[in-house]
Amino acid sequence: RPDVLIMHPGPVNRGVELAPEVADSQYSVILDQVSNGVAVRMAVLYLLAGSKGAGSKAGA
User: Fold this and answer.
1) What is the pTM of this model?
2) Is residue 15 part of a domain?
3) Is 28 among the domain residues?
4) Which of 46, 14, 43, 44 is nearest to 30 (CA)?
5) In total, how many domains does the chain have?
6) Which residue range(s) make up the domain with 6?
7) Which of 34, 39, 45, 59 could pair covalently with 10 via S-S, beta carbons 3.0-4.6 A apart?
8) pLDDT tens, 12-59?
9) CB neighbours of residue 10 within 10 Å
10) Alpha helix locations (H) across the chain?
């Protein structure tokens, strides 16, 4: 179906969770989802840790 997006947070167990043909199809946005997920998790960890981590000029 052309109106379907294939999504998975990764890593994908090809042949177990998804057929390789599905994971590599033109409707797959798995690589985009994985890439965006990494950035989101990094941002959340940064916010939870506070902005006074390494490289901060606070107290300098």
Assistant:
1) 0.63
2) yes
3) yes
4) 14
5) 1
6) 1-50
7) 34
8) 899 999 999 999 999 999 999 988 998 999 999 999 998 665 555 555
9) 13
10) 20-23, 30-49
Pick from 37, 46, 20: which is nearest to 6 by CA? 20
Amino acid code (one letter) for 34: V
Q: Is residue 60 included in any domain, yes or no?
A: no
Residue that is written with structure tokens 């294939």 in the block = 6
Length reported for the chain:
60
Residue 36 included in any domain: yes
Element (H, E) at 55: none
Task: Give 5's pLDDT tier (boundaries 50, 70, 90).
Answer: very high
As given in the structure block, the two tokens for residue 6 are: 């294939």
Q: Which residue has the tokens 């033109």?
A: 26
33 class by beta-carbon count within 10 Å (0-12 exposed, 13-18 middle, 19+ buried): middle
Integer CA distances (angstroms), 45 to 1, 27, 34, 37, 39, in order: 37, 31, 17, 12, 10
Respond yes or no on whether the N-terminal peptide bond of residue 2 is cis (omega within 30° of 0). Answer: no
